[in-house]
Amino acid sequence: MSTSSTGNAMKAWTHTCSGLPPDVLTLSSLPVPTITAPTQILIQVSHCALNPGGSIIMQLLPFFFRASPAIPEMDFSGTVVSLGSGVPRDRKLEPGTPVFGTVPVSQHAKSTSGALAEYVVVDNTAIVVGRQGSPE
Fold it and tell me: Fewer CB atoms near the end CB (10 Å): N or C, the chain?
């Protein structure tokens, strides 16, 4: 996935009301999320897992608990784009590092943040560094 020609917009599947995914999802253009805490990481999403938990949240969590439009789903893989200044060096993360992780339920439920988008911001503790190549 890549950003639009403006460089600061992304595509994301969003919803503004509760319901079944085929009934409520819309492909939208949104600003690329920004790092707001020193331990966060901006990830360019390459893959997103669709799971029953995401669908249940989409169907049952009322919008008076959530921001709108909401981006669904929590599990993703991708590459690091940028890091907050407080990401521990022992994590050995830098732009281009392959990672996989999850948007924590607390973050997902309280904000518009989700993995069904071109970019996602999560705390560095929510990701694992991916391995390239075949297993030994």
Answer: C
Closest CA relative to residue 103, chosen from 69, 60, 53: 53
Q: 14, 25 in Cβ contact below 8 A? A: yes
How far apart, in whole angstroms, are the C-alpha atoms of residue 67 and residue 134? 41
* Predicted confidence (pLDDT) per residue in 93-116, tens digit: 999 999 999 998 888 777 788 999
Instruction: Check: CB of residue 43 under 8 Å from CB of residue 122.
Output: yes
Q: Write out pLDDT tens, residues 43-85.
A: 999 999 988 888 888 887 766 666 778 899 999 999 999 999 9
The share of the chain scoring above pLDDT 70, in percent, equals: 88
Give 9-129's CATH code, choosing from 3.90.180.10, 3.10.20.880, 3.30.450.20, 3.30.70.330.
Answer: 3.90.180.10
Q: Say how far apart CA 7 and CA 22 lie, in whole Å.
A: 29
Distance between CA 57 and CA 120 in Å, rounded?
18
- Which candidate, 93, 87, 88, places its Cα nearest to that of 130? 93
